[in-house]
């Protein structure tokens, strides 16, 4: 029997409205003393004299969702968190748009800083999400993780 994990993927860019609504839901939780967010944004890097216009994200979705779940579980074991949300884009995200949204909450501020860095580093190292850089001239290449 296979386990179904929460789908953390959002089609296209993650909107500021979605981010604001996700954060606002936690304002009434009086046990929370601190929130911290990470917003990964597509950069307009210049690679071989060509400017990145967008990144097209693909993933092994089932495997990636399991990895996100494992990272979430490990983070809750390691840090005193009240809640955590992770969302990643799939499909095309233009330069300047948000492709990764991580939100953590805790009774104490030090926990959210440590936990957020731990989560983002684990995502970059372990989650099978791949980005193809699309340049202004419409050529493309697979992104090197940075």
Automatic annotation (TrEMBL):
The keyword Repressor does not apply. CDD domains: MoaE. Pathway: Cofactor biosynthesis; molybdopterin biosynthesis. Its EC number is 2.8.1.12. It is an enzyme of class 2 (transferase). Transmembrane segments: none annotated. Keywords: Molybdenum cofactor biosynthesis. Heterotetramer of 2 MoaD subunits and 2 MoaE subunits. Also stable as homodimer. The enzyme changes between these two forms during catalysis. This is Molybdopterin synthase catalytic subunit.
């Amino acid at each position: 029997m296979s386990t179904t994990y929460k789908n953390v993927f959002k089609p296209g860019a993650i909107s500021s409205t979605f981010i604001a609504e996700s954060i606002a839901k936690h304002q009434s939780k009086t046990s929370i003393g601190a929130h911290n967010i990470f917003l990964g944004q597509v950069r307009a890097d210049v690679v071989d004299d060509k400017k990145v216009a967008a990144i097209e994200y693909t993933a092994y979705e089932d495997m990636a969702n399991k990895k996100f779940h494992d990272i979430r579980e490990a983070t809750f074991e390691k840090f005193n968190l009240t809640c955590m949300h992770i969302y990643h884009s799939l499909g095309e995200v233009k330069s300047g748009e948000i492709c990764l949204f991580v939100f953590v909450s805790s009774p104490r501020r030090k926990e959210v800083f440590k936990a957020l860095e731990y989560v983002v580093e684990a995502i970059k190292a372990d989650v099978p999400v791949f980005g193809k850089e699309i340049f202004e001239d419409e050529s493309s290449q697979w992104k090197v993780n940075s």
